[in-house]
Amino acid sequence: MSVSRKIFLFASVLTFASSSVFAENEVEKTDSTEEVSSQKTSDEVVIKEVKTDAIFTDAITEFKDDVIPVDSATFFNHVGSLEFEISMDYNSQVKRFIDYFGTSWQAKLKEMITLSEHYFPIYESVLDKNNLPLELKYVSVIESALNPYATSRSGAVGLWQFMPYTGKLYDLKIDRYQDQRRDIVKSTEAAAGYFKDMSMVFDDWLVVIASYNCGPGNIRKAIRRSGGKTGFWEIYPYLPTQTKNYIPSYIAVAYLMNFYQEYGIYPAWVEKPEKDVTKVLCTPNHNLQAMAEILGISLEEIRSLNPPLKSNNIPANVKEIELFLPNDAAYTFIEKEAEILTLSESYKPAVTEVVYVVRRGDSLLAIANRKGCSVAEIKEWNNLRSNMIHPGNRLKLYL
């Protein structure tokens, strides 16, 4: 395979820093956020100059009675300067969340402002390609606090917090080898697909976003209970509690991430790997540990640049996969690929054939989830043309 085909320049700055996740996507109270981890390197204030002449500081701006000094006139004067396609409404619910995110959640808000410099251009590129409002990018802040490794207690994963079924519905690979819900571009494309589909069902963007939280079924139920009304605030009283909070929190975050400086809030300095990276093509014969040793970089760095991978092994159920490496390491990869493949052999995991006897009530999906493989793998291993199985069937599984 030629070098020109094997290597694709992709200049970017990857930032995978720790953040907080809204527990079960709820933000009803100040204790409704679930702290994943903390990466503060110092208790001291850090100030650094950046191209935008903004400052980075860990210092928290205090507000009297934890209230942000914004009223409807100020709010609409600010948002009137934005070219938002999605309605930015102001009421007591929105004000409550502006106060919350600007005070109790301010430390994380400051990190989101910094991390958004990486994630938002990627989001905007995908959203623009799909002719969708660019401000849909703020949904990811509410969902995951811009953390590709975010996992909720209900099993939602990634920047856009897809549940397994919905992720697979939008062509995200989720198996024992990789979870593309953690892939920045692919998960954003999946979210764009969802928004696009729901925009053809509901004619209010706030309702489309609300459906991302509670599902279209609950939206339809709220519409029926409202007597057929279709605007978000019209169906608001009939929505689940968490969804009632979801849209005001979305508006509050969108507002503060645009006008934080008006309130003396500045971005926080977030420790993160920053690398110009290059895509290389790998096969199941490659191993990340072997690559790290030959390329002279840490395994942790390779893993941080490739969050979808669940282990040090390249997915065995694909012919090849694109992997991100620092630029210098990527060129060394091309030069020393033969050495990497040889060393990878010593890290190849042992595969055991297991015979599974189908029980009453089993399905291929249930077996796949229980055994850590995919339905497609089970069908391939057993030459199955459909998902139909019966009690007593013997299935070969390679685990």
Précis, in short:
With 399 residues, the chain is mainly alpha-helical. The chain has helices at 3-6, 72-79, 92-102, 106-129, 138-144, 164-169, 184-199, 205-214, 216-225, 232-235, 241-259, 288-295, 299-305, 327-335, 337-345, 364-371, 375-381, and strands at residues 7-10, 20-22, 33-35, 277-282, 321-326, 353-357, 394-398.
Features:
7 strands, 399 residues, Lysozyme, Membrane-bound Lytic Murein Transglycosylase D, Chain A, 3-stranded antiparallel beta sheet, 42% helix, disordered N terminus, mainly alpha
Q: CATH class of the largest domain, anyone?
A: Mainly Alpha
Report the biggest beta sheet as strand number plus sense, adding barrel if it closes: 3 strands, antiparallel
Number of distinct helices = 17
How large is the share of residues in beta strands? 5-15%
Q: Give the averaged pLDDT, no decimals.
A: 85
**Low-confidence segments:** 1-53
